[in-house]
Amino acid sequence: MRLPVPPEPVELKKEARRNLYSLKLTHKLPSYLWKEGGWSENFKREGCNWQCFLRFHSRVGQEVDEWIIGDISWKELINKLEDFTEGIIFRFLSSRQNRRGDIG
Questions:
Q1: 68 in a structural domain
Q2: What is the rounded CA–CA span in Å between residue 11 and residue 21?
Q3: For the whole prediction, is pTM greater than 0.85?
């Protein structure tokens, strides 16, 4: 799925660099992508609501870590997340959401 590339959340990245677990234990990055990043409509169209999106985000922790420590750029992270949405795990997450009937 094509995803818009929102501005890099530099302050979130700085916070995460100070304490890697601070970002992972909250919903700050997923919330940013869902709301400010404009991803909610894209994911909802694919049958993936907020809870499904959090499950998706939990599967890409290594990629997020790579961005936090500077191994990959923001654009590379977004590209990796887009690639993940084309995979079988994402299709499973969104189809599971559809079967539960709580999309939106």
A1: yes
A2: 15
A3: no
